[in-house]
Amino acid sequence: MTIRKGQPWGKTMSLPEDALIASTDSELADHVSESYPAADIFDAAVTLSASEIVLGVVGGDLHRTLGSPTHTPEELRNGAGVGFPIDLGVVRFTVSGEAGEGHHYSLFAAHLIATSRSSRSLWAGRTVIAMNAAFRGAENLAPRGHPNDGRLDLIDGQLAPLDRRRAHKRTYAGSHVPHPNLEETRVRDISISNETELYVELDSSSRIRARHFQIRCISDAVTVIV
After folding, report:
1. Which residues lie closer than 8 Å to 12 by C-beta, 6 or more apart?
2. How far is it, in rounded angstroms, from Cα 145 to Cα 4?
3. Distance of CA 14 to the CA centre of its chain
4. Distances from the Cα of 6 to the Cαs of 9, 10, 35, 112, 154, in angstroms?
5. Pairing assessment for the beta strands 127-131 and 139-140 based on DSSP bridges
6. How far apart are the first and last CA of the chain?
7. Would you give the distance in Å from CA 143 to the centre of its chain?
8. Count of alpha carbons within 13 angstroms of residue 110, beta-carbon side
9. Beta-carbon contacts of residue 162 (< 8 Å; ≥ 6 apart)
10. Is the pLDDT at 106 greater than 70, yes or no?
11. Which CATH class name applies to 89-217?
12. Handedness of CA 26, 30, 36, 42 (dihedral sign)
């Protein structure tokens, strides 16, 4: 069950001996997709359950969102960690090739960043940000977000140069101010389309180019022990 206001979240628990450990957000997503294909998750052919899928996490932006505890893998297995049920993001890309249009599926644990320019500069062109974690590196992009509320924090828009500089400063401080050129919403499921290809980065790792993609939040997908 997703977190509710006023309810406790997380509990002390031991990491099972056979559980995998991720040191990055992309490793966390990869560990899940190795057993549960992203296409099956997106199409609801399989259901993820935080009560059944348990992983250790020792690094990454989701780990930072959960307080950046410094437990070693051995300490996690000996009961020093805290387990949290978390959501995951799954995305279906519509891609074109010689055989026509097809689909490519991926999971992400912390964030999806799509930009219309390959420089990865936020808001220089159209930028779409879907956050499950609060952070991307030093940037606090979703200060009001929560990785177990059943939604992704979405920002979509483009800023002029002066506004970009101001936005970057606020991003590091986590003190966002609404801007008329940025649409900020919290979503369970959303489709994104652009006239030209967007450069899409998942968990600061894999990148794909696409003009159309659909993002879904998978609630209570896994339990992470940190």
Report:
1. 79, 81, 82, 83
2. 13
3. 25
4. 9, 13, 34, 29, 24
5. unpaired
6. 19
7. 14
8. 30
9. none
10. yes
11. mainly beta
12. positive
The span from the CA of 46 to the CA of 5, in Å, is 29
Each domain of the chain, given as residue ranges in start order, spans 18-88, 89-217
Phi, psi dihedrals of residue 87, rounded to the nearest 5°: -90, 165
The region, left, alpha or beta by phi > 0 then psi within -120 to 50, assigned to residue 10 is: left
Q: What are 194's two structure tokens?
A: 């652009």
CA-to-CA dists, residue 213 to 41, 91, 105, 197, angstroms: 15, 7, 9, 11
| pLDDT band for position 99 (cuts 50, 70, 90) | low
Mean pLDDT along residues 190-194: 97
DSSP annotation string for 139-182: EES-TT--TTSS-EEEEEE---HHHHHHHHHHHHHT-----TTE
